[in-house]
Amino acid sequence: SVSQGLLEDFLLLNRETRGRGNFASHPDAYYREMAASLPKDFVKIWQATYQNQIIASNIVITFGDTATYAHGASSSQHKDAMAPYLLHWEIIREAKRRGLKTYDFGGVAPEGELDHPLVNLNRFKSGFGGKYIEYIGSYDYVLDKFWYLVYKFVRRIL
């Protein structure tokens, strides 16, 4: 089943996902700050539950006529239930019911870059149909090189 979830449940599942080693993730404090700093009606936590266990969770940010899949986590248990697919599908259905025009799956590998780290996510996300749209990337504007190096170091060890 798919329902609204809680940030703390997402964080538990995200730690498990991070522990598998093949997904980049932020520290828990990042997600808490994100949820606290955005208007409450912008951020929704969704979860898929199977046999009374949360096995997938997504953070979706809605602004204007677009719902954006910002972060996701999934359990290594019950993979055969394919919860991430159902979770996205139900979020898309809810977005349509609300009259939103776009469901943005977020980051994908650039077209044609078969060795890009996100290429497996492309396969998953493109399975829902839709079209590939590439936006300008995000970049850091460094104001102080020393503190930026400290920041990069700390990010690496966390």
How would you describe what is shown here?
By secondary structure, this protein is of the alpha+beta class. Helices cover 37% and strands 22% of the residues. The protein has helices spanning 7-19, 28-37, 83-97, 119-126, 145-157, and strands at 2-4, 43-50, 53-63, 66-74, 102-104. A 5-stranded mixed β-sheet has the order 1-2-3-4-5. Strand 2 and strand 3 (53-63) form a beta hairpin. It is globular. The chain starts with a strand and ends with a helix. The model has no long low-confidence stretch (mean pLDDT 90).
Low-confidence stretches: none
How many separate helices?
5
Q: Report the radius of gyration as a whole number of Å.
A: 17 Å
Shape: globular
Keywords:
globular; five-stranded mixed β-sheet; single chain; about 160 residues; alpha+beta
Give the helix/strand layout.
Elements: E1 2-4, H1 7-19, H2 28-37, E2 43-50, E3 53-63, E4 66-74, H3 83-97, E5 102-104, H4 119-126, H5 145-157
Parallel strand pairs: 4-5
Antiparallel strand pairs: 1-2, 2-3, 3-4
Task: Summarize the structure in short.
The chain is α+β, with helices and mostly antiparallel strands and 158 residues long. It has five helices and five strands.
